[in-house]
């Protein structure tokens, strides 16, 4: 909206703003009932004094287009349209509230929005920092398109053949033998979970997972009325000894696990534990979704082979992605599993988005097949290790007296638990005011009221230090 | 599987095939209960005589890995695993059958599969032919990445800012004034419908649409337990006079329409009818989804402005896409509507796939902003017109005595209705045997048992002639 203001115009700025807002209302972009941005936010957007915004809002309120809300805020009135026509305006609000899918938690919505504010120190963001993203190599890949067989049409339901072959080769290097026919290309690991939720499970199904788990921060299963049950985690990972009881008590239908560099705890499941998990889940006919998003991001040494490498009878759906290693924006991931399951998921995928971007699939094939992926991994492992060690140093300097944590041997995350209870929401808000964005532990386990997930992958090393120091100071005040 | 056969080996081919199939079973790619491909199909895959396949299957059956199914076919046995372990194998079949989302209709699944068979004349395919896809221009766009601000990270929830600005400009040229804040970038128009289904509607909601309609061929609303009601169409498009009764009888919650170059009828809604539709749906508080996938593909003259251009109070969600004009593989579309609705859909999108491919979004921005899109449209309009006229000539030559149709003034489709009833499934199967793939009318209206949707966008002109002649001959036999 800002770029429509003309600062050299004879028309006062407040009147220009009034006009811009009026247009948004008249065009239906802000329909009746819309809560408009706060005056502070509008002042930011238009880069004017708050008094200028206040003058515009006052005019619009006087003309009956806006009204103050109880409890603060300003919304677009309903009676606007009554005066213009006899027809009641469409009440989108009821539509927005009544969809089947749950909205993201307000904390996550706030995080999603704040992440795009410049100057924010993002201590919770689970992505590679822009400085770690391979822009140069991607440009080279794209420039090389001349000689390549680019695909602009729809792809096969399971995805482009070349990228599936490249994924099969990639998995072979990790000890997983699977054919391209047993692989589905998806738009990131999250979509794999979405397809599994709507394609393989009944409503009310019970899904087991680590506690805490990334899965709790999503609504992918919960929106389909499925129930999540958390299994305790020890230093070797999820403890499969709890499975029999869960199976008996909840009739568990599926187990979701991140065995390597778990999100959010950073823990690694040992090889013995992996074999034990497979043995027990087989005995109880419990299929497993293995999320291996972080497996290639080891820092001190490779993790044990994926669960899928020990899978003898196709009871594991293996999920991988390029989002954490090459580019989240590519939106390319994969699922490997029994063919009838993969075909079912492919059919559902065709029904929801007709397949993933062929441009992204083509680029992914180039990355995986040409050795570029492995080269790039070697570079970012080094850089992530430096970041991890810096974060650990900052933690030691500022948090030793107030919190505990473990050194992760790969991935992006350190799970920091404060010694004493503290109001996490207040910590989140106060940190935000100081331009530090954190991910409260309650996103991953509603009982984890003393923990935060710290990510060393995104913020710069100096920001990591600054951000950790700020959070430590705020936490001390609140404890 | 074929490329694993060694035709120079001392090991007989049937034993090699036996080994390959055994591996697929042992690795769990074909778990217990899987129906394996027919012997005819396996012979095709391995490029061997059918007797060679039979020998391999016989061996595997004798060893207890496979068994004949009642009613034909061969499946992987259950007792395989019983002999190897005391543990019952995981029964994926029940998972595959029990998901919430319905499978595609078997006809559509068959079409999806057959489309990738070489030599098939695709008379039903609603896509641009590879010869109409802009490979050269796309390569130039990609090669130009060096100078551009490529984005490899996650994008904002509503999508990349540059592409939303480019879409807003594009819409302005069509008479639709909307700001980038009111636009959501999606992975094609189908995803827009998916997000609307799970984000804005309750279970059991009633959705009105044209009859026949493309919407009937999807399960996007039906899988969420919503009900579809068809409204009759005349030469000016959907007849809004039926809306009051539908609203009263079914409590309609939403209306979906394709006003320009309708799929599958090719019809165009007149300007008066558009205004009338808006007037009536406003009076009955019925929001509209306008699908404008084909609006830019006019052949004889531009269609009336989109419904959205007449929308005064944000009761229309406008859906557009690059799939039908530039590249389906890009998977880029957009929804324009009231901001609170767009924000709700953006939140759901973040929860299902974390946004569309940033590579595709970047390429789409380059296409829309640089004039490339308009240039390309001018070219394909000319070529589509030649194809449409050729298809009409072939219809006249072969079908005049047995069917009726209208000349579409844009888009991809001709709706051909035979004079007499005929078994459409048999027509579909016999055409398939002659390597001609058609889309039966029943996909779009279960009562349209005498119609097929003919597309002139995909097959070459000589294939269009050959395919139409073949279908005419088969139809004559069956009528």
Automatic annotation (TrEMBL), chains A, B:
Name of the protein this chain belongs to: GntR family transcriptional regulator
Domain called HTH gntR-type: residue spans: 11-79
Keywords: Aminotransferase, DNA-binding, Pyridoxal phosphate, Transcription, Transcription regulation, Transferase
Needed co-factor(s): pyridoxal 5'-phosphate
Source species: Bacillus glycinifermentans
Annotated PROSITE patterns: HTH_GNTR (PS50949)
Coiled coil: none
SUPFAM superfamilies to which the protein is assigned, alphabetical: PLP-dependent transferases (SSF53383), Winged helix' DNA-binding domain (SSF46785)
Family: In the C-terminal section; belongs to the class-I pyridoxal-phosphate-dependent aminotransferase family.
Lineage: superkingdom: Bacteria
Pfam families named among the record's database cross-references: Aminotran_1_2 (PF00155), GntR (PF00392)
MF terms (GO), sorted A to Z: DNA binding; DNA-binding transcription factor activity; pyridoxal phosphate binding; transaminase activity
């Amino acid at each position: 909206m800002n770029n429509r203001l003309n600062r050299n115009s004879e028309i006062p700025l407040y009147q220009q703003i009034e006009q811009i807002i009026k247009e948004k209302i008249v065009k239906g972009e802000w329909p009746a009932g819309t809560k408009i941005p706060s005056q502070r936010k509008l002042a930011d957007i238009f880069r004017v004094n708050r008094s200028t915004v206040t003058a515009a809002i006052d005019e619009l309120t006087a003309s009956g287009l806006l009204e103050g809300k109880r409890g603060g805020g300003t919304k677009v009135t309903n009676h606007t349209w009554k005066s213009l026509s006899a027809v009641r305006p469409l009440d989108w609000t009821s539509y927005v509230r009544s969809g089947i899918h749950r909205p993201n938690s307000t904390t996550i919505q706030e995080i999603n929005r704040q992440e795009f504010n410049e100057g924010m120190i993002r201590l919770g963001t689970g992505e590679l920092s822009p400085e770690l993203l391979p822009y140069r190599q991607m440009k080279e890949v794209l420039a090389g398109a001349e000689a390549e067989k680019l695909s602009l049409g729809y792809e096969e339901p399971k995805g482009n053949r070349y990228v599936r072959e490249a994924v099969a080769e990639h998995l072979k290097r990790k000890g997983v033998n699977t054919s391209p026919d047993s692989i589905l290309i998806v738009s990131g690991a999250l979509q794999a979970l979405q397809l599994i939720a709507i394609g393989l499970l009944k409503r009310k199904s019970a899904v087991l997972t680590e506690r805490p788990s990334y899965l709790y921060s999503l609504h992918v299963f919960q929106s389909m009325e499925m129930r999540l049950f958390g299994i305790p985690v020890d230093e070797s990972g999820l403890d499969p000894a709890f499975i029999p009881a869960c199976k008996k008590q909840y009739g568990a239908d599926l187990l979701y696990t991140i065995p390597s560099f778990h999100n959010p705890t950073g823990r690694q499941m040992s090889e013995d534990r992996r074999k034990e998990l497979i043995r027990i889940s087989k005995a109880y006919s419990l299929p497993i979704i293995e999320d291996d998003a972080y497996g290639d991001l080891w820092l001190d040494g490779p993790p044990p082979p994926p669960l899928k490498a020990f899978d003898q009878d196709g009871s594991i759906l293996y999920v991988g992605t390029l989002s954490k290693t090459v580019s989240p924006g590519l939106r390319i991931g994969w699922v490997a599993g029994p063919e009838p399951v993969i075909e079912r998921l492919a059919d559902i995928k065709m029904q929801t988005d007709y397949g993933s971007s062929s441009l992204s699939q083509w680029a992914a094939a180039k990355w995986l097949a040409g050795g570029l992926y492995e080269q790039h991994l070697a570079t970012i492992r080094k850089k992530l290790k430096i970041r991890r060690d810096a974060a650990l140093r900052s933690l030691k300097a500022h948090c030793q007296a107030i919190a505990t944590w473990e050194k992760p041997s790969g991935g992006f995350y350190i799970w920091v638990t404060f010694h004493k209870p503290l109001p996490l929401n207040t910590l989140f808000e106060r940190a935000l005011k100081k331009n530090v964005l954190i991910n409260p532990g309650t996103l991953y386990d509603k009982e984890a009221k003393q923990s935060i997930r710290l990510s060393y992958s995104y913020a710069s090393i100096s920001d990591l230090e600054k951000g950790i120091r700020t959070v430590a100071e705020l936490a001390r005040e609140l404890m």
